[in-house]
Amino acid sequence: MDTYEKLLAAGKVKQVEHLTRQEMLMFYDQMSALEMQWMRGQAIGETVFTFVLMYDDSLLERNQSLKALVDSTHLNGNMAFQYIRRTNSLNEDDYIICTFTFKDHISYQDTHQLLLSLE
Fold first, then answer.
1. pTM
2. Could you read off the pLDDT tens digit of each residue along the chain, which spans 119 residues?
3. How many domains does the chain have?
4. Domain span at residue 39?
5. How far is the CA of 82 from the CAs of 47, 53, 76, 100, in angstroms?
């Protein structure tokens, strides 16, 4: 998978500071669709983890709306993993924690405050 810097250099993506409202809504729609595909059983590496902006915190600090989206995605993923870990049997390889997983240091309260500040 290409990094954000490679995609930017190739002219395939914009600087995060220059995203329009419509482009931000498209990101929200895309991320929701990727999460739902993962929850319905598709591989996490082919769904949620294909969103290239999830991996560079310095980019997210430059666009608070994008940061709220990515932080919410990490929180949702962690909640799913916690729920699955509590089950009596784990049969799905897709739900086994791997090296690339969701960040677990993101606070629900901080993300909630960030979302409220965007209104």
1. 0.69
2. 677 788 888 888 888 888 888 988 888 898 889 988 888 888 887 888 888 777 777 878 888 888 888 888 888 888 887 777 776 665 555 455 554 566 666 776 777 777 777 76
3. 1
4. 4-117
5. 19, 24, 10, 16
